[in-house]
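Hey, weird one. I pasted the Tripartite tricarboxylate transporter substrate binding protein sequence into the form twice and got a warning about non-standard characters only the second time. First submission, copied straight from the form history:
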Amino acid sequence: METSATRIGRRTALALGGAALAAPAALAQGKFPDRPIRLIVPWPPGGSADAQLRSLAEIAGRKLGQNIVVENRPGASGTMGALHLATQARPDGYAISQMHLGIIRRPYIVRTPPWDAVADFSHIIGLTGWLFGVCVKADGPIKTWADYLAYARANPGRLTYTTSGIATTNHITMEELAAREKIELVHVPYRASNEAAVAVASGEVMSVADSSAWAPLVDGGQLRPLCVWTAERSPRFPAVPTLKELGYEMVVNSPYGLSGPKGMDPGLVKVLHDACKEALFDPANAAVRANFDMPLEYYNTEDYRAFVARRAEYERAMAQRLNLRID
């Protein structure tokens, strides 16, 4: 016959057993990370995002007590990291990647969506954006944005421009500008923004429309900037007009952040967020951003999830309006 003492004893044993089962999970979570973390950068080395994320990884790794190893996976317009997260990576916190607008946009411009940018990732933190602009060869005949448009009108289909990939934010912005001006431009995509800038400096392509990997070539006298896409003029290039000053109500800075695979434990997300936030605001990372004129676009985890959701709706509507398709 079961007595009160027996029932109490069983309850106690069950409670102790539950605590014993919970303890390893708590300890395991407490030890995170206990090995290096992979940060996939979906561009070749040398560009602005690569530099900023490498700096962030180094600083955050010191704070976590484990290395964050940068792994470059270029190709597919900067979406190889997202593809890995969505199809192969485990949600254990040891694989994260850059989340940029091209990844959010991609489901709406391909026949078979590879992921749902809102539901298929664990969004961690918003970090920064890019200074975009259009540059030409410094010793060429085009000196201003008005010259650029005039050349395009006089030479339909002959003015070439390069970007870091098809269906990137900068590519779509150029297509929208061309549509507004009723000019025909020829897109010549490269794998990365630094490669695109060098192609213009060497005379392979007539202009580059990309992030500020072109800035050192401007400083070196090889390229000439015609416009920047920020809300205000860049302090580094104060003589260069914005798109708004040129008559377009457009500000393009393409904020990006970090995400992991779907289903990450909130505790792991918090550990990564907190370390990356400290690294983002560290003077060393701020110096890298300043070197590339990258605006701070910090979002905490909740706000970054909300940003991705809002942006997904915007990208869906824009893809429909512009009839964007890449396959």
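That's the output from the first submission. The warning seems to come from a hidden character in my clipboard, not from the data itself. The CA atoms of residues 162 and 188 lie 5 Å apart.
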